[in-house]
Amino acid sequence: MNAEAIRTRAVAMMTGKPEPPCEPGYRLHHGQRVETLALEIAEREKLDVCRERLAIGALVHDIGKPGCAKSESHAVKGAEIVRSDFADLMDAEELEAVAQIVLHHYDRPNSIWFEGKEKPEWTPDILLVQDADVLDHFGVPGIWLTLHWATHKNFTPSQTITEWFTSEYMCSWRREARRSLNFQTSRRLLELRIAQMDDFFRRLK
What we know:
Helices cover about 65% and strands about 0% of the residues. By secondary structure, it is an all-alpha fold. It has a single domain, classed as Hypothetical protein af1432. Helix 2 packs antiparallel against helix 3. The chain is globular.
């Protein structure tokens, strides 16, 4: 795996991509944070994973999202992009491992969507990126996203505070995030990040 070349190409492909209402290139910035989180969780959990492969899979996990039609799966599209645009930089086994991370990063076994169904068994790489992806929607990045969406919806500060603490969407998202995580480290980090957001929005009152 030529990690440096893969990273250079991925950054070029995702830089400045429109992602309304988020800022252009949001998926790149999100991917970089998810990469850092996935590696941190792997280290804390003492998991035997290929850090290089995990890092690349985390970085590009949302590469299919910019411009993806609502009728499409951004995970399926992203896996196709990995297989077609990075085949010259990885061997076949590495390529498919990264494509699988991208393809299944949204298929969290503990999610409500698998309730009453047979749960899939994923590799640690996939489970780590799933958790890191959830975590990046909370804490400081979560504050940024909440304020960005509030601006998009023309919310006042008081409406934004109400949205975070009491809206059905936010309350259900917190419940789903808590139930869907795969590792104890991730659960601890999530509670810290939710507490950060609670503290911020209380101070905003």
